[in-house]
Amino acid sequence: RSSDLAGGGYRLQGVCRPGCFAEDTQILTSIEAGLAGTPAGRVTPSTQLMSLADKASPAHVNLIPRAIDVPTHGPEKPDLFVFALSNGKKLRVTNAHPMVLADGSIVRANRVQPHAAFVGNDGQPVYVLAIGREPAVGEVFGFETKSDTRVGHIIVAEDVLVGDLKIQDELQAELTGLEARR
């Protein structure tokens, strides 16, 4: 907690769980007029994120709007992973961010191999042309959608499917379990 100088009390300062976006990352959101790319830093708790419908899959993309259950933000010390994509975009994420590969598997950003293929929001492959690293500018932002299904936690950033914070937590639990068995 940090002191709130204006109110004399305390306010909770958010700290981003691993698996976040650079603040300028375009997140696909639902607005009254249709769909829009909204910078991650401007997504509010009332924003609806586009995510996979419950019966959809990376092979059969069907997007629906979902409310945000948990938003987070905070500073990031390690350099972000920067994916230069064949759709002309650059996706900047933390090392633990869950990435959806064209084969349907989900891996942490730091495990993506050069020339891998992600899934575009139209269901077509989007290829990784290059992988770089750069420091985070400002804070990083993460989101967890309100969904009871795993696919409902797959959202869209820079026009490719990625996991949200819930999927990131699942990947971390799997890695922790593997390390405990060694």
Main sheet properties: 6 strands, antiparallel
How helix-rich are the residues, as a percent range? Answer: under 10%
**Cα radius of gyration in angstroms:** 16 Å
Mean pLDDT over the full residue set = 87
Treating each run of at least 4 consecutive H or I residues as one helix, how many helices?
1
Elements, N to C (H/E): EEEEEEEEEEEEEEEEH
Q: Can you tell me the residue ranges where pLDDT is under 50 for at least 5 consecutive residues?
A: 1-15
What is the number of beta strands?
Answer: 16
Q: What fraction strand?
A: 35-45%
Anisotropy-based shape: globular
Helix- and strand-based class? mainly beta
| Main β-sheet, spatial strand arrangement | 3-14-7-6-4-5
| Distance N to C terminus | 37 Å
